[in-house]
């Protein structure tokens, strides 16, 4: 009957859609497809990311890696709000809802133009910054200010916030101030001699970077592989991060 034919066509459409949904769910549960929404605290400098993603996608071609740039100032909160799958943070406040994965350490260095008095120094102490204009990505919860300068009773002559790493480096090159950034972030400019990088104290000023994921959300294999890849790339063994 016409009614039977109409029902049959509808059933065939529904069954085809159900098969498609089942396959999509199977891919998700097996970790063969999905997305990683992540952000890195403090830095908008991601020159290290393209080669890492290229290596990662060779093994996980159906995983979409998305940088959530607007979460860079507070990635931990964005993670708790469900806007990120992965937050890469510097010594974050502990939270019972977050699973922490140690990644790597890096070193903060002062940067200045090659003709600045800092450029002639082997190391710098907190007191050296008292008469300086310091340009930072953010002054809120900044580890350099709150664990290096302020405990020593030092407050710089002037502080400016510029939320872009490349802009900070450009201002320093122009002689408008000095800054403190991660050594890896300024390495290309130091190599060309356009800025000078000076260690903070004889021991250096190091930070521990940590990846955060939500405890109540299962970490899929592709996300864990991405975390491992970041950690192993910093250690010089990038292929160890890929199963």
Would you give an account of this structure?
The protein is of the alpha/beta class. Helices cover 35% and strands 24% of the residues. It has seven helices and nine strands. Strands 1, 2, 3, 4, 5, 6, 7, 8 and 9 form a nine-stranded mixed β-sheet that branches. The termini are far apart.
Radius of gyration: 24 Å
Q: Main sheet? A: 9 strands, mixed
Oligomer: single chain
Helix content: 25-40%
Outline the low-pLDDT stretches. 236-243
Amino-to-carboxy terminus distance: 56 Å
- From N to C, what is the helix and strand string? HEHEHEEEHEHEHEEH
Set down the secondary structure blueprint:
Elements: H1 2-29, E1 34-40, H2 49-59, E2 63-67, H3 75-80, E3 86-90, E4 98-112, E5 133-136, H4 143-149, E6 158-161, H5 165-173, E7 178-182, H6 183-192, E8 196-199, E9 205-214, H7 221-234
Overview features:
disordered C terminus, alpha/beta, nine-stranded mixed sheet, 243 residues
In short:
This protein has 243 residues and is of the alpha/beta class. The chain has helices spanning 2-29, 49-59, 75-80, 143-149, 165-173, 183-192, 221-234; strands spanning 34-40, 63-67, 86-90, 98-112, 133-136, 158-161, 178-182, 196-199, 205-214. The longest helix has 28 residues, at 2-29.
């Amino acid at each position: 009957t016409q009614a039977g034919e109409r029902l049959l066509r509808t059933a065939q459409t529904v069954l085809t859609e159900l098969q498609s949904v089942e396959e999509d769910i199977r891919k998700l549960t097996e970790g063969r497809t999905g997305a990683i929404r992540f952000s890195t605290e403090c830095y908008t400098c991601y020159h290290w990311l393209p080669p890492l993603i290229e290596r990662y996608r060779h093994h996980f071609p159906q995983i979409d890696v998305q940088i959530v740039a607007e979460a860079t100032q507070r990635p931990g909160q964005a993670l708790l709000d469900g806007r990120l799958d992965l937050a890469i943070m510097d010594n974050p406040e502990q939270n019972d809802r977050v699973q922490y994965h140690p990644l790597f350490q890096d070193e903060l260095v002062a940067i200045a133009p090659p003709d600045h008095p800092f450029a002639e120094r082997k190391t710098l102490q907190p007191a050296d910054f008292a008469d300086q204009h310091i340009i930072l990505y953010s002054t809120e919860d900044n580890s350099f200010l709150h664990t290096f300068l302020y405990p020593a009773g030092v407050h710089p002559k002037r502080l400016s916030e510029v939320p872009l790493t490349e802009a900070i480096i450009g201002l320093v090159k122009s002689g408008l101030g000095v800054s403190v950034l991660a050594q890896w972030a300024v390495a290309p400019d130091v190599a060309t001699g356009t800025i000078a990088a000076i260690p903070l104290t004889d021991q250096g000023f190091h930070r521990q970077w940590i990846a955060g994921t939500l405890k109540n959300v299962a970490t899929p294999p592709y996300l864990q592989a991405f975390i491992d890849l970041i950690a192993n790339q910093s250690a010089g063994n990038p292929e160890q991060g890929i199963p």
